[in-house]
Every structure is written in structure tokens, then in C-alpha cells.
Design a protein that fits this description.
Layout (H helix, E strand, L loop, with lengths): L4 E7 L3 H13 L2 E7 L3 H9 L5 E3 L2 H5 L4 E4 L6 H8 L8 E4 L5 H7 L8 E2 L2 E4 L19 E4 L7 H14 L2 E4 L2 H30 L5 H4 L3 H10 L3 H10 L1 H24 L2 H20 L15
Parallel strand pairs: 1-2, 1-4, 2-3, 4-5, 5-6, 8-9
Antiparallel strand pairs: 7-8
């Protein structure tokens, strides 16, 4: 595949950015890949492993000459970064992001960007529990979805170009408005992560009185919870603070379902439990049939 962009600049060099860099190289999607990170240690690691073609001390330096800028920082840092890079963005450049909430990102970034660039928020639905520049691998986005939430009145040619770029990385691309995205992700990602963090926290409390048996005898279900709960704490703090309405709405529904199951267990209602578990198992099978996971223990992701 020929290059889609002349120069891609990553602000932030964690799992998503590093995986994108590997995927860009695999498909030859860019002539030059630039990168920066707030941490000097992260920049040094990226330099040592040859993650990108050039490492820059600041975001402002990294974006100079780039026709695609990808913001890969926690949502809480987006506004500050947007302010920093705005004076240095090339006319006609596309600015996108990989944040898992979209309304908050738009509110943080859009007011600071000049009129001569195209802002197209995005969210690749892929990840592992690992982070940092060493965690990336080119296959992370293969057969996964990337959701774009273009703003009203945006440039259609810039959008088409970004779609082709993500497809070249290996992803399927879908579009939706930002409020709907945030509700969908509250169901499929944000609330499940909150539940996982809670369950691991409960187990930690129990571990104190069971002499580490909770950890020692962890079955697959608990191991799945700990995999999810190992995700980056800064990122998830920002997710819950910036998508609170949708997350609380879904969490309220979850609580209602949990109370219903609790009542079924207390009253010995085996028929309700069986019907509920049958319905939820069908949803799991649908996810596998859609190619968004596998029955393998590692969730179909490359092991790291």
C-alpha cells in the first residue's frame, strides 16, 4: 500500500501509538513517523527500540510539518496539548485522537485548533493490559473497529483519507456522533472496567483474611477480571471523570440486573438463572462470530 500521509506525528508513545507506528511501517502508510512523550524515559526507550523515525522533546516540535497528528495522551491532558501544538500545525493537516471518550475530547481540543486544520476525533477499539512504547505490536488493530466521530461541517476529503489510513492499519471503520459513542462505550468498555476494578478490590480485601488463597487459587473468571483491571490507571481515571453521565446510567442498569440475580439466588429461582445465563452466553457467542474475539484464553490478542 502506498503512503497515505507524508509525516505522522504521535503525541504520546504508549501502547496505541506504538502499535500504530508498527502497523504504519508494516503497510508503508507514511513517509516519516515522528513522536514525543512527556516522560524523558519514555522518549529514551522509544529511541532505543527505533519506534519512530524522529523523537522530539516537545509536542510543538513533533507536529511541525506533519499532515497527520495523533493525540495519544490521557483525556485530561488533551486541552493543554491542543493549546501547545496549535501555533505549529501545518495548514491542511488532520488532527485526530485515540481517546475512549469523545464529547470531552471535542470540548477540550476543538476550541484551541486553528481553522486551517481538520479535527476528526477517533477511537480504536483495541488494547491489552500493557502500556508503554515496548508494548506495541502491529497486529493490535487487525479486524478490530475504529470509531470516528467527525464534527459537523468537516472536510469530507480529510475524513475519507483518515478512513483509508485506519483500514490500512488493519481496522474496520465506523462512524457515529460523539454522544452515542460515549453511551456505547459506557456499555461495552467503561462500566465493565469499573466492575473489574471493583471485583479485584473486593478480592484484595478478602485476601487479607484468607492468607493469599484468593490469588493462589484464582480461576479463569478472576484472572479475566485482573487482566482488565491491570489497565493504565491514569487513563481510566480520566475516562470515568469525563464520561460520568453515560457510565452512571449504565452502572445503574447493572445494579438493577444484579439485584434481580441476587433475588433469584436467594429464592432458588433456577429457571430465571438458567434463562439469564442462556441469553448472556448467546451474546458472547455473537461476539466471537463477529470476529471481535476468539474462544482462546488470551482473548485472541498476541501475548506480551
Amino acid at each position: 500500500m502506498s503512503a497515505i500521509y507524508t509525516r505522522v506525528a504521535f503525541v504520546g508513545l504508549g501502547l496505541i501509538a506504538s502499535s500504530m507506528a508498527h502497523a504504519i511501517r508494516r503497510a508503508g502508510l507514511a513517509g516519516h513517523i515522528a513522536g514525543t512523550a512527556r516522560s524523558a524515559q519514555t522518549r529514551q526507550v522509544a529511541r532505543e527500540i527505533g519506534l519512530v523515525d524522529s523523537i522530539h522533546e516537545t509536542a510543538a516540535e513533533a507536529v511541525v510539518g506533519a499532515d497527520l497528528v495523533v493525540l495519544c495522551v490521557p483525556v485530561g491532558a488533551m486541552a493543554e496539548i491542543a493549546q501547545e501544538i496549535a501555533p505549529f500545525l501545518e495548514a491542511g493537516a488532520t488532527v485526530t485522537d485515540v481517546g475512549s471518550v469523545k464529547q470531552a475530547v471535542i470540548a477540550a481540543v476543538a476550541p484551541h485548533l486553528p481553522d486551517h486544520v481538520h479535527f476528526i476525533p477517533g477511537h480504536p477499539l483495541a488494547g491489552t493490559e500493557h502500556s508503554g512504547p515496548r508494548a506495541g505490536f502491529a497486529e493490535l488493530f487487525d479486524n478490530r473497529w475504529c470509531i470516528l466521530t467527525p464534527l459537523d461541517g468537516g472536510d469530507s476529503a480529510a475524513l475519507d483519507r483518515l478512513v483509508v489510513f485506519w483500514q490500512g492499519i488493519g481496522a474496520h471503520v465506523d462512524m457515529m456522533d460523539a454522544p452515542h459513542h460515549d453511551l456505547v462505550l459506557a456499555v461495552t468498555s467503561h462500566t465493565p472496567h469499573l466492575i473489574a476494578y471493583t471485583m479485584v478490590g473486593v478480592a484484595d480485601d478478602l485476601r487479607r483474611v484468607t492468607d493469599s488463597e484468593v490469588i493462589k487459587y484464582s480461576a479463569a473468571g478472576f484472572r479475566d477480571f485482573t487482566r482488565i483491571a491491570a489497565s493504565d490507571p491514569t487513563m481510566w481515571r480520566d475516562v470515568f471523570l469525563t464520561n460520568k453521565e453515560a457510565t452512571l446510567e449504565v452502572l445503574g442498569r447493572f445494579t438493577e440486573e444484579l439485584f434481580a440475580l441476587q433475588r433469584a439466588i436467594r429464592t432458588g429461582d433456577g429457571a430465571q438463572l438458567h434463562a439469564y445465563f442462556t441469553r448472556t452466553r448467546a451474546i458472547r457467542r455473537g461476539i466471537i462470530e463477529a470476529g471481535q474475539d476468539t474462544a482462546a484464553p488470551d482473548f485472541g490478542r498476541a501475548k506480551r
